[in-house]
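This part of the workshop introduces the protein records we will be handling. Getting from the letters to the tokens is the skill we practise here. An example says more than a description, so a record of this kind follows:
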Amino acid sequence: MHIRLASEYDLDTLLPLFNAYRQNLGKETDAIGAREFLAARLSENDSVIFVAMDEHNAIGFIQLYPSFSSLHLKPVWYFDDSYVIPAYREHGVAQRLADKALELTKDTDVLCVRRTLVDDNTSVMLDPDTGQQNIYQLIASR
């Protein structure tokens, strides 16, 4: 398995994973909407997507969005999208994708990577220096 940065050429590779990710979270399949969303992210470079590949197929992805922390006066990478196909779960793929996100924070001098969990009330803050996870409650609702 290897993890690499996705590009516009990976749209067809990412689409089934992204659609499965959304369905896994209770959304109806929407191949057209998912394609438009991913194509926009890839072409506008307003997110970073890493894709995990086995020998021939995409098996997982993580998508990160840039943001800023007023409190720390630094940029942060926010990730809300991460998915691994069921056959590859329990094989460390999700952790390797998260590690790749942390590697990006170190390479770009970003303070942390934050992930909102499915319940929209709990987040995980990943410290890029230590890799330590800190869980906290969101104060404001979206």
Q: What stands out?
A: The longest strand covers residues 58-69. The two ends are 36 Å apart (CA to CA). Helices lie at 11-24, 31-44, 93-107. Residues 135-142 have pLDDT under 50 and may be disordered.
